[in-house]
Amino acid sequence: MKQLRRRPQQGMTFIGLLCILVLVGTIGYAGVRLVPVYLNYMKLARTMESAASEFKGESGSLDGVRKSLDRHWAIEDITAVDQKDIEITRDDSGLQLHVAYDDAVPYIANVSLSVHFDKTVKVK
User: Fold this and answer.
1) Coil vs helix vs strand at 13
2) Residues 12-25 pLDDT 10s
3) pLDDT digit string, tens, across residues 82-103
4) Which helix (H) or strand (E) holds 87?
5) Which of 8, 3, 5, 99 is CA-nearest to residue 47?
6) Smallest Cα–Cα separation from 106: which of 32, 23, 20?
7) Residue from 104, 101, 63, 67 nearest 85 by CA
8) How far apart are CA 34 and CA 50, in angstroms?
9) In sequence order, what are the residues at sequence separation of 6 or more whose Cβ sits closer than 8 angstroms to the Cβ of residue 12?
10) The pTM is what?
11) What does each C-alpha distance from 120 to 13, 46, 56 come to in angstroms?
12) Contact, 86 vs 99, CB < 8 A?
């Protein structure tokens, strides 16, 4: 009688494949939910940098920078924060624009994803 040799299993089981797909899907869904939040932050950062670049080399007034922010805000349609939430301060090196805020998006059922943003732009 011939003795049968068992071959070791090769590949992945269906349960293993399902576990990996669930993990990848969960992380992918979180990424899809966070993309609009980061796009809104990038619009905010671009607006602050544009307003700061208009006053480069000048000692801009606080009201002038605020008016510039208002113009850019209307163009970019930023919804996460109001332009009044941007702190404009004057120090030895010039003006500084600073904003810090948290944004949360619903994820699954009663679970939300929360992101903290903090941006400072100097007007030199």
Assistant:
1) coil
2) 889 999 999 999 99
3) 888 899 888 877 788 999 999 9
4) strand 87-91
5) 99
6) 32
7) 101
8) 24
9) 20
10) 0.79
11) 51, 12, 15
12) yes
